[in-house]
Amino acid sequence: MEKIYSLSIKLNSFQFKYRTFLSFVLVLVGLVITDVLFNNYYFLIVEYLDNKFNIVIDDHNNVDLTFAPEIWGGVLAMVLGTLIIVIAIAAESSPKLMDLFVKDWLSLCYVWFLIIASLHAVVIMYYFEPLNRISSVMLNTYVYLFVASIFALPYIFYILLYSKTSNVVSTISGIIKDFINKMRRPSIKSAMNNDISIVEEYQNEIMGSLDQLDDLLSFIEFKETQTEIIREISTIIQSYIVKKPDFNKKFFRLTPTIRDNATFRTYTEIQYKEMAETCTFYETKTFRLLGNAYIKMIENDRFDIASLIPAELVDIGKTCLKMKDDMILDNVNIRFNTLFRFAVKHAYKNNEPRNLYNLAFHYSNMIQEYIKSNRVDMANYCYDKFKFYANDIYKNAANNPSLYFIVDALTFELRKCQVLIHELGWSDEDQMNLLKLILQLDKPPGYSKEGVDKGILGGNNGTRRIQVGLALFYLAIDKLEFASAIAEDYLDDLTYFDEKTFKQNINTQCFLLSIFGPTFWEDTDRGNLNIYFAPEKDQIEPFKELIFNLMDKRLEALERDAQFLSLEVDKLAQKKQKQDGYLNPTDKERLEDLQRKISARDKSDDEEKINWTIDHDILYTLLSIAFFADQEIDETEKSVIYENYGLLVKDVSEDSFNSDFGLAAKRFIELEKEESRQKQYENSLLNIKNIDVDSDKLQRLLFAYIDIANADDFIHENEVILIQNAIDVWELQLTINKPKSGEKLKIIN
Predict the structure, then answer these.
(1) Maximum CA pair distance of the chain?
(2) Cα–Cα distance between 233 and 628 in angstroms, integer?
(3) More confident of the two residues 163 and 617
């Protein structure tokens, strides 16, 4: 049975490939048969005409044939001349038209009919006497010529319509869809089992026809046709994805037809193997084609056509979701990311954010489809990519300020997704995880104190404004935890600004949210939609109360951290000095960032000066243990210093600790040289010893030193030396071990 199927398919392929020859044979045979039949029944026909119309036989014998070839020549010249001109002109913009024409049964049969019938007239004219076939004369003159003439004009109109690019696109698309449908037939599937040539034939047809659509897209400049081609490609791949499970698995073998295709010529054997295992060669080619089209459109400023491509990707993604085809769905995500990279590069080069703005909208639509399908994994993936591209844009937006708006657009799109997630009842855990990704779309604030004072907000503020709008939404639905998370993230900006400046920025943002309406006063590619609009304006005051309440605690922590940061600045400054004023870009950026954070915590010059006391000696020794060892103080060491200082000194508050530690750190920095710092450490130990302190309190302080040394899970030799120095100065009858790698420092006796 499989052999019969294979033979029938080969016969069908033969007629497809050699349709020109077959049409010639069919027309020739048809004309011969009609001539023979007309001759056999000629007298019956004549008798009927005589009786019906009073036409006698002698009239037929006197027919003049000399005019027939001339008329046939005129008809033939008119039809073929029009055909050649139309096809030649149309082929310049539609290269595939000629290939389609030679496979069109109607055109082939009509043209062959004209040619053979005109030759029939010539033969009759020269061989009428010897042949003595008056029937052929009547058939050619009154039937063939009549048919040829009456259909000449309709055929010309048919060719004009056939050569229209949109019809060419539909024809090519129809051919591909027809082959896709055929591959579901049991006969085709069976034939592919034993004949690799059939597999190659079908691969060649659907791949070749897709290349033809790609060629048309490159040649055509009309927007209507470009739109149609992109939509047809989308419908083709969607149809393919739906019907693909019914194909013979052998269809997905990487035959020379696939390997030799221009799309895959740069692939390695590993990539070929992966493509064969996943059965995705056709999807990969389609996505590559759409990606190349996107590049061309954005480079030619075809924003509307470029926007159509991600829109069709959304439809393809929806089809994949319906078919539960995660393999192709991953490719859809990759293609969206690739388009984003193309658009980002174009935006950097041309300072043109429009493509990114439109692309963010369509990418968001894809995310919403994932959300509707309860695909938490896909939503997380796409959120993370939004974060990635937002951060990348921030890095390069300094020279392209218009790109800051794109991050606002990305944040706005994810805000819509968060609202949809809530409406669909996702778990709080999943919602919070996604919200945390949204809060990573911004960077350190892009505004200055001077700018805020003048009412000018910078690059980061649009994103913050949308985040606040989302917080208002959460407050309106009684999700305080989510609103607090947004407020806490906003408070990160306090690292760079003093309390007054930060409050002013908050007030400005909230004021803008209070006056914004749902529409913008200008038009964009997406209408006059105002992405900064927040309908929950009644929650502005509750949000301000929330963030200001959280701010007090944050300020206390920042005041303390600023003292530690000053030590890092000192370390980098000394490094710069040792390197003759040079710092690598990373260290330079870090130094500038630290200085900015510290300046935000600077006190005014008229603040009361603090005198050095024994409390400062205690803090200085704690600081020295932490910093002398590895020239760094990590978060664990900071906590240990604060906790132990509170145990050793009475009535310690956040403010008093920050003040005391600031003076100790200042002294440490001003000493500059390690010898001077070491000397101060020894003096502080003596000062602590000279006050009326019993051995228990000294041991408690010593244990604090040990806690600091153990805090970072690595015992430095300098830490052991400093602690032993304290034991010696205080004359304590204690011994500390020299721990091995991985062990803690401890007192032996």
Answers:
(1) 153
(2) 67
(3) 617
Dihedral angle over CA of 263, 269, 270, 272, nearest 10: 40
- CA 616 to CA 666: how far, in whole Å? 11
CA distance 366 to 379: 9
Question: pLDDT, tens digit, for every residue of 456-495?
Answer: 344 457 888 999 999 999 999 999 999 999 999 988 887 7
Angstrom distance (rounded) from CA 314 to CA 717: 61
Nearest-angstrom CA–CA distance, 436 and 429: 11
- 3-state helix, strand, coil split of the chain in percent (to 5) is 80, 0, 20
> pTM to 2 decimals?
0.68
CA-based nearest residue to 121, from 91, 162, 149: 149
Distance CA 461, CA 439 (A): 13
- Give the C-alpha separation, 270 to 120, whole Å: 62
The answer to whether 212 touches 263, Cβ cutoff 8 Å, is: no
Structure tokens at 737: 């071990």
d(CA 691, CA 671): 24
Q: Are 473 and 534 in contact (CB under 8 A)?
A: yes
CA distance linking residue 632 with residue 622, whole number of Å: 13
Quick one: DSSP state of residue 602? P
| Cα first-last separation, the chain | 94
Quick one: tokens of 281?
Answer: 């060669």
